[in-house]
Amino acid sequence: MCSSLFDDPAAVAETISDEAANSKPADVALLADLASANRILFKQGVVDGFGHVSARHDKHPDRFLLARNMAPGLVTADDIVTFDLDGRALNANGRAVYLERFIHAEIFRARPDVMAVVHSHSVAVVPFSILKGVPFRAVCHMGGFIGICAPIFEIRDIAGDASDLLIRNSELGAGVAKVLGDGNVVLMRGHGSTVVGDRVKQAVFRAVYTENNAKLQAEAMRLGPIEALTAGESETTARVIDTQVDRAWDLWKMQAEGRI
Ligand code: MN
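That is the input. Now the predicted structure with manganese (II) ion docked in place:
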């Protein structure tokens, strides 16, 4: 798998004593949803041993919640750490954290409307990050949120031509956020993609259907020229489908919990 080529080495957390973090803990339901999101994304094949999903802190908009450095499929609420927008862990208590937390930090800083972020190396999407002249775009109604062309972050523009392709600091994270702009999906050349949402469930839904859309687009392109959604169709389908997110979430959550 492509993702096996990419390594997210652990970073030791810089722990900052923060009384406010303890006095205003995140909502228990949000932490539970974020743990479920990790497990769902694993079951749906969006993440494997790597990749991560975050949520903006419900009481501190300048903070976000992200699991400690571990495989997403194993995350529980107790594994979730609070970070500030500089990527500093506030309550890691010595636990290792994800190296690429700066993707989340800088998108939350740049986009007040974003409440959740998924970063993955989902394998059907990666080819579109390296193809020249073929935009990744919505080709079916479930992928309408992708729009008519997902932008591609080129790390060489910031880090030169000998980087490890990982988003290992705030400058690189800000670069990803800038290329994302006001969109919902950004591809990262030779690495993966990052998807945002206005809530955890929406971000998870979009991450799953970003992967599905990539499979469909690639398969169609093998058969012949393709007809993609227009900008108007993308907007309309995204708005309509967004009302149905809970239906998929409820199913995927039960599946991830082994109840069906
Ligand atoms: Mn990565």
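Residues 167 and 242 are 30 Å apart (CA to CA).
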